[in-house]
């Protein structure tokens, strides 16, 4: 298994966990934290602590996902013959690109049509 494949698996797992943590949260302050007591005086862990945990885990997973994506770029196998730019390729620099065929002139009698004809 290549290093890039390992990074790819980790990226998928972290992305899935990030989706789960975001879906558990409620934008109005409810979500998982409201199911742990819902405003009563005795709460399992406390609503504030649950919200802090979900907030910190969201930021941690997002940072980890970004770091894994950037690190996976370094693990891509580009091969020995790969050149990043065509400007650095010596073979491409010596061959000139083919020029497109010139467009016919508007006043050329051979290609004149009634629309672009100036004679009446």
From TrEMBL:
Presence of the UniProt keyword Iron in the record: no
Cell compartment(s), UniProt: Cell membrane
Region (Disordered): 97-120
Record field: transmembrane: 7-25, 58-76
Keywords of this entry: Cell membrane, Membrane, Protein transport, Translocation, Transmembrane, Transmembrane helix, Transport
Membrane topology: Multi-pass membrane protein
Pfam families linked to this entry: SecG
Principal cellular location given in the protein's record: membrane
Protein function: Involved in protein export. Participates in an early event of protein translocation.
Family named by the database record: Belongs to the SecG family.
Name of the protein described by the UniProt record: Protein-export membrane protein SecG
Organism: Flavivirga aquimarina
Gene name in the database record: secG
